[in-house]
Amino acid sequence: MTSLFNLSFRYKIPLWGSLLIVTTTLAVSTALIVQAYDDLRSDLQSSSVSLGRTLAKTLFSAMIQEEVWHAFAIIRAPLHEKSDDKLVQPEMILALDQQQRVFVSSHPKSVPMLTDIRQIDDEFARLAELIVAKPGPDAPIIDLSGARRFYAAVPVAEEGARMGTLIIVYSEEVFLPRFRAIIERSALIGLLVLAVLLPINWYWGQRTAAPLIALARSTGDVARGALRAPPPGTYPYDDELGQLFEAFGLMVKALQEKGLLEREMIRSERLAAVGRLSAGIAHEINNPLGGMLVALNNFKHRAGNDERTLKTVGMIERGLAQIRDTVGAMMVEAKVKSRDFVPHDVEDVQMLLSGEAHKRSVAIHVDSDIAEPVALPATLVRQILMNLLLNAVQVSEPSATVQCTIRRADNKLTIETGNTGRTIPPEVMSHLFEPFVTSNETGHGLGLWVTYQIVSQLGGQITAESHDELTRFSVSLPIGEKS
């Protein structure tokens, strides 16, 4: 029984509904059969009373004159009448005298004249006792407990003079044909009811259980950390269950926003910590680094033409220059713009990157509709362009083309870069704009972080997508007032 209660609502609701329908159908059918039985008994009693009183009136004169053959003809007449109502056809009719002996019998061979009915069998003996105990004029159906027959006893009397008792005997089997017909009709009606209601109940149960199952699955997903609400339209009604779905959807949405906010806060705190650390390191490094570069430059001019010395000094100088560039990238701060971004800045960026692109056999194609100054700081926008295009050039295969589109519309400046080649792995994509995260073996992972910082400072947005050997970065910057 416990396993039944543990079933899914998908099966539990239809099963309980089917059980209720079957139980109700059986109960109604049983009640109808019982009522039919009572009606049969009532019909039998009415019929026997009518027949008994009619026969008793005609028997009185025959019994008082002791005309046995006439009395025999009277009680045999109802047994030979043809009637469509077989229910009221008696099995046997007896006329008794005052001493409970048979005056005349419809079946003289089995029940001869002058036979004391007490000697026939136990049922007739009990019947004789009831007749003596109830000598009144009523004619009830005498239902003996456990008897095989039904009996009706009618006094044969006129003007207070009683000659005896008329006994009408009905076989218990008289009910069987009518009962069989009633049971067959009840069974047919019950089957029709079940044939209609059970499919409807199963369909309704499935429809009712489906949203509950969807809600249970979504609740389980939420418990496991997957914040997913049931699909819209799972339960499109405004009752209590619909209100529960709406509340659950709002809860999942609030949890999603809370999780996003928490991730952004952790990300911002981590980036801020890295920024503070980077600024401190850069400040400590820049001073001695500048002095070292100046010293190397002086040494290089005074060292003469010794090839080995110049090669070593050049290698050290390039290494220090790389350190300086890295430190400079880590010290991105919002600055007061000196001028607006102009079309010439796009040409400058292309020229500055032409050497790196030529070395890697990569073409850069820029499509720009900028024809007049844009109210954005030129230095920061140039650095965004430089970082995105340089990153695209470095990861492109030889003979590839880096596409760049620059558009101005709806008070926004959009920059999109795209390149073919290696796609960004998913584990890198989720941390793409964090410092020191890169899929390029030769990169330091600061270019995109710097770009993200600049875009954030300018109130814009940057997104990235990488699939099917195509990588695309999109930047949207709100345009301010012209300086």
Structural overview:
The protein is of the alpha+beta class and 483 residues long. The chain has helices at residues 2-5, 9-64, 68-80, 122-133, 176-223, 240-302, 307-330, 343-359, 378-395, 426-429, 447-457, and strands at residues 92-96, 102-105, 141-142, 149-158, 161-171, 340-341, 363-368, 374-377, 401-409, 412-420, 461-467, 470-478. The strands form three sheets. It has a five-stranded antiparallel sheet. Helix 2 (9-64) runs antiparallel to helix 3 and helix 6 packs antiparallel against helix 7.
By CATH, the architecture of the domain at 2-179 is named 2-Layer Sandwich
Choose one word for the global shape.
rod-shaped
Q: In terms of per-residue confidence, which ranges show pLDDT below 50 for 5 or more consecutive residues?
A: none
Strand order of the largest sheet: 2-1-5-4-3
Structural class: alpha+beta
Strand content: 15-25%
Q: Could you give a quick summary of the protein structure above?
A:
This protein has helices spanning 2-5, 9-64, 68-80, 122-133, 176-223, 240-302, 307-330, 343-359, 378-395, 426-429, 447-457, and strands at residues 92-96, 102-105, 141-142, 149-158, 161-171, 340-341, 363-368, 374-377, 401-409, 412-420, 461-467, 470-478. The protein has 483 residues and is of the alpha+beta class.
